[in-house]
Amino acid sequence: MDVVVFGAGSLGSLIGGLLACEHDVTLVGRAPHVDAIEADGLRVSGAVERHVYPAAVTDVTDVGERRADLAVVTVKAYDTESAAESLARCDLGVTLSLQNGMGNEATLADTLDCPVLAGTTDYGARYREPGVVECTGVGEVVLGPRPGGGTVDSDPATDVGDAFRASGIETRVEADMRPHLWEKLAVNAGINPVTALARIENGALVDGPAGPIAERAAVEVAGVARAAGVDLPDRKAREAVGRVASATAANRSSMLQDVEAGRRTEIDAIAGYVVERTDGLVPVNETLAALLRGWESARGLR
Question: For position 278, which CATH number holds?
Answer without folding.
Answer: 1.10.1040.10
